[in-house]
TrEMBL record:
Keyword Heme annotated: no
Protein name stated in the entry: M28 family peptidase
Location (main, coarse): secreted
KW Protease (keyword) present: yes
Domain of life: Bacteria
Species for this entry: Arenibacter aquaticus
Pfam families on file: Peptidase_M28
Gene Ontology annotations for the cellular component aspect, listed alphabetically: extracellular region
Subcellular location: Secreted
A single MF term (Gene Ontology): metalloexopeptidase activity
Family annotation (InterPro entries): FN3_dom, FN3_sf, Ig-like_fold, M28_fam, Peptidase_M28
Domain (Peptidase M28): residue spans on this chain: 109-311
């Protein structure tokens, strides 16, 4: 019995400790710049995808665009034995809801769900946007190609679905085309509300908005830099939680920030040629994006995007002025770069969809002691746990210790005052949950 049992334990331990999974490299290799280019071109060819644009034409306007996106997801689904549940999620918005809604409009999102086998009601979400705009925010008839903003994010989402639909996952993956972004984040608001009402357990949202420009207005050209925006703590935190932070820390350790660190670490592991920049803020200065409505309801969500934006190519009428060619046209998109950022999404969707949930509770103690103590709630299907810690000034979880299949542990010689701590659950396949920051104190 003992002899039989030992190799079994060893196998689990080895897998749990292993650093990389070859399937992740396959996923990176399968993402196609050509297909992304083709999809961005198709989206551009709808002329305008403005939220208030034509919905009847089969060749122009947002109606034609969303029907095409839905049919693309259905085609992908046919190739994987109907592995995607494809539908519209609709939200009626009345004229005057804000100055950018000049008539009654249905804000229609396209949803494709690849159902997880172990945790069908846990969701990791990738989103892009369907809609576009030009200089005047309410001009819904002029040509508005929105090649980078945000056909690139939408095409990346379609391509991730094509590649990942060849695999089976433990958690559900949602591929999302959101509408109404430019008019006031209406598609995200509607979808987040829908998810909340349905009781979705959301692991996180990857909002992709502009993933195809490598020439910045700052003069920098880089096909490896990209940004991961995450807010510090959820806006839904309670007064009590806010007070606790004063004494125990956590100002830079909210759920969205942990998701950002997860992506950062995974990219450093599997795509070391890339330069992920964690930006410690919700979004660009004073600007918005579709992860925010999810954050507003307490869900983890980050924005993944290019590092160097070009403002002459965003929200602009197509024209030449003082020798500068304005407009968000196809020619300005770098498809190889969009492919890389799509791969960033795909490997993180896969890793999270293959991972067990994080422990619900992590209690920490060790006040005036030479060691840090931990107790956490057990995670079904986890084969072990990994304790992480870092200097309080470090953005990344720099130290870790795999502690096996236990529910408490003491880190001897580590003083609680000098570090931040967290824990992950590790699956038999080696994939890890996002880090759970302590949410309880051991007295
Ligand atoms: Zn925009």
């Amino acid at each position: 019995m003992h002899k039989l049992f030992t190799p079994f334990i060893l196998l689990f331990t080895t897998l749990a400790m292993s650093q990389t999974d070859p399937r992740i490299y396959d996923i990176i290799d399968d993402i196609s710049a050509e297909r992304i280019k083709k999809d961005i071109s198709t989206l551009v060819d709808f002329g305008t995808r403005h939220t208030l644009s034509d919905t009847v034409s089969s060749s122009r306007g947002i109606g034609a665009a969303r029907r095409w996106i839905k049919s693309e997801f259905s085609t992908i689904s046919k190739d994987c034995n109907d592995c995607l549940e494809v539908s519209y999620q609709k939200n009626f918005v009345e004229k005057g809801a804000n100055p950018r809604i000049t008539k009654d409009v249905w804000i229609v999102n396209v949803v494709a769900i690849q159902r997880g086998e172990k945790y069908p009601d846990r969701y990791i979400i990738m989103s892009g946007d369907i809609d576009s705009r030009v200089s005047a925010s309410n001009d819904y008839t002029s040509d508005s190609p929105g090649a980078n903003d945000n056909a690139s994010g939408m095409a990346g989402t379609l391509e991730a679905a094509r590649v990942l639909s060849k695999y089976k996952f433990d958690n559900s993956i949602v591929y999302l085309g959101l509408s109404g972004e430019e008019q006031g984040l209406f598609g995200g608001k509607g979808m987040a509300k829908y998810a909340k009402e349905k009781g979705w357990d959301i692991i996180g949202v990857f909002n992709n908005d502009m993933i195809g420009n490598i020439k910045g207005v700052d003069g920098i050209i880089s096909n490896t830099d990209f940004r991961i925006f995450s807010e510090p703590v959820p806006p839904t935190e309670t007064e009590n939680e806010r007070n606790m932070r004063r004494f125990y820390g956590g100002e830079v350790d909210g759920i969205s920030r942990q998701l950002a660190r997860y992506v950062h670490k995974n990219v450093k592991t599997y795509m070391p040629e890339m330069n992920p920049m964690m930006i410690y803020r919700l979004d660009r200065f004073g600007r918005g994006g579709h992860h925010r409505p999810f954050n507003d309801l307490g869900f983890a969500g980050i924005r993944i995007m290019e590092a160097h934006e070009n403002y002459t190519q965003q929200h602009q009428d197509i024209r030449i002025e003082n020798g500068i060619s304005y407009g968000d046209v196809l020619e300005h998109v770098n498809f190889d770069y969009a492919k890389k950022l799509t791969a960033v999404n795909a490997i993180n969707l896969a890793s999270l969809a293959w991972a067990p949930p994080a422990p619900k509770e992590l209690a920490i103690g060790g006040i005036v002691a030479p060691s840090a103590k931990f107790e956490w709630s057990k995670v079904p299907n986890a084969v072990g746990y990994k304790i992480y810690w870092r200097d309080t000034t470090s953005p990344t979880w720099d130290h870790s210790r795999y502690v096996g299949n236990v529910t408490d542990f003491t880190l001897e010689g580590v003083v609680i005052d000098n570090f931040f701590f967290g824990i992950t659950a590790v699956g038999a396949n080696g994939f890890e949950s996002p880090v759970r920051f302590p949410n309880k104190i051991i007295r």
